[in-house]
Description:
Layout: H1 6-21, H2 43-56, H3 75-80, H4 92-109
Helix pairs in contact: 1-4
Amino acid sequence: MLDITPQVRKELIKYLTNLGTGKKKPNEQEVGLCNNLKGFLCFDDKKALIGYVSKNWPKSTGNPLNPVPHPTLEDWKAYATSSIPKWDRRTQYGKARCRMCLWLAEELKAKRI
């Protein structure tokens, strides 16, 4: 379980839900979730969170550095290519990232992490 206060957990659930539904855009759209959690979690908790995603999210690539699958590219290549939009909800890649956020919000609500 993450070592966070109930208030931080509540704010994180809200942030992830808003990212997942498109009500909020990430602060840094050219990077993934981990880098958009600045201010919520320390490095070790971000590492634990993304590690949990890579092992437990049903759609995960299994790679803790790049857990969101891309429809045509290897996970590391899709993430490393700056011209590929990470959060564009009109693309399969962006939709997958948003679904991951919603799934993760539910996991946090259920206190499985």
